[in-house]
Amino acid sequence: PFFFIVAVFHGYFAQLVRTERKEKAVVRKKLNIARQLRRYSDSLAATLNRTQLLTLLTEQIGDLLGAEFTTIVSRGRRTTIAENPYSRLRIPIESYIEPLEKLIVERDLIPLELEVKPSVLDSTAISIPGTPWLQFGKFTFLPLTGAIESDLYLVISGTFDAELLEYSRVLLQSAAMAL
């Protein structure tokens, strides 16, 4: 019986240690993301050139999300304004401008209303209410100004964690203030 009790306690403590390690890894990951966001926001605030700011934004969001492709497109001019030079793919504008226009015209909006997730920094929700996002196949579209009628849209290609997409919206908010 003594060895049985020791074995049960050993199993319990081993499980407890595994759980604590997992929790520490999650906290470490969130802290790294918070550091990245702070560094990215600082660099966006220090940039005065609009083209450089938009290119930097595509690089940073592409890096944060691990996106295959990031670009900023003007709906009015139907041109690419800035593109991530480090994107793994090159996608012609025709592949995503038509679906974007169709989604906007149809108003087939999917508001990013994630459950409230506590921030590592201040224990409040990170969500920026009212900023819509549109999705078509592998493309995700985020308006730079936060309004659906925006001329400039960030186009991202890939599969993303919803929480990371939420963090990218924080970067968009910083960029919108810098513009």
Q: Summed up, what is this model?
A:
This protein is α+β, with helices and mostly antiparallel strands and 179 residues long. Helices cover 51% and strands 16% of the residues. A hairpin with a 4-residue loop joins β1 and β2.
Note down, in words, how this protein is organized:
Helix 1 runs antiparallel to helix 2, helix 1 packs parallel to helix 4 and helix 2 runs antiparallel to helix 4. About 12% of the residues have low confidence. The protein has 179 residues and is an alpha+beta fold. The chain contains 4 helices and 6 strands; from the N terminus they run H-H-E-E-H-E-E-E-E-H. Strands 2-1-6-5-4-3 form a 6-stranded antiparallel beta sheet, with helices on both faces. The relative contact order is 0.16.
Keywords:
6 strands, elongated, 51% helix, alpha+beta, 179 residues, 4 helices
Largest sheet: 6 strands, antiparallel
H/E series: HHEEHEEEEH
Strand order of the largest sheet: 2-1-6-5-4-3
Classify the beta-strand content into a percent band: 15-25%
Please identify the structural class as seen in this structure: alpha+beta
- Looking at how many chains there are and whether they match, the oligomeric state comes to single chain
The average pLDDT score comes to 79
The helix content, as a percent range, equals 40-55%
Q: What is the CA-CA span between the terminal residues?
A: 71 Å
- Got a strand count? 6
State the shape.
elongated
Unreliable spans: 108-129
Rg of Cα set: 21 Å
How many DSSP helices? 4
Please render the helix and strand layout as text:
Layout: H1 2-46, H2 50-65, E1 69-74, E2 79-83, H3 94-106, E3 110-111, E4 132-136, E5 139-143, E6 152-157, H4 162-178
Antiparallel strand pairs: 1-2, 1-6, 3-4, 4-5, 5-6
Helix pairs in contact: 1-2, 1-4, 2-4
